Amino acid sequence: MALSKISKLSDIHPGEKMLLSIFPIAAIGFSHSAVPIILNIIVFIILHAYSKNNRKIVTKFTLEIGAFAAFSSITFVFDYGLSYCAIILLKSLSAGLCLSFFSLTTPIDDVLLILSKHNWLKDLCDITKSMERFLVVIDEEYYILYNSIKSRGGFDGFKLRIRNTGKMAGLLFINTMNRWKSIKDGIDSRGYRGYTPYLAKEFNFSFFRLGAVCLYTITLTLAIYTFNNNSILFK
């Protein structure tokens, strides 16, 4: 959240970045070939480098998604083979790069500002904004509890780790519920009227840039279609 606000691309219209980041994920879901997926991975690596995004965060985010996909697709090896699982893994790495690019260059407030202009999405934006603060509170509570238990040697042994992890989860839930009351009191004290106002912001919109994004998405779609047909003919 903090890095997205200081990104060199933060002033670009969120719609452009949303189209660039979200559409390839949907399109690549239909790909049966590794070539278009690798192409998208290379493109987003270049975009990350151009945006000067935090490499550690991008790598950690992408590898975590890839590790989860690899672990989840173990059972597919026996039914579909290694090549099918390799495609799943590449799709996951590609999606991780796309989502990390969007999250590190687009502040959530900018997205909510654009979406809240539509009446049928305004309530959803208000819920999202409230959940944003709630997730930050959960994260703060987790690190306080984790560091407190770790400083007392609570994770030294296997049995202690299991036992104290369960206790930490219970305390985290209880403390979070208690903190919600203070959050609600803080919201009410600031005159919350049932909706969240968003500050207006001028975005840098470019038809040339939008055209380039559309051209890339069309090219990627055509590549997926072409390689899918070639794989069918080859079989």
From TrEMBL:
Gene Ontology CC, one term: ATP-binding cassette (ABC) transporter complex
GO biological process, one term: cobalt ion transport
Primary localisation category: membrane
Bilayer topology: Multi-pass membrane protein
Keywords: Cell membrane, Membrane, Transmembrane, Transmembrane helix
Highest taxon of source: Bacteria
The UniProt record lists the keyword Cell membrane: yes
Annotated compartments: Cell membrane
Transmembrane segments annotated in the record for this chain: 20-49, 207-227
Record protein name field: Cobalt ECF transporter T component CbiQ
Taxonomy of the source species: Bacteria, Bacillati, Bacillota, Clostridia, Eubacteriales
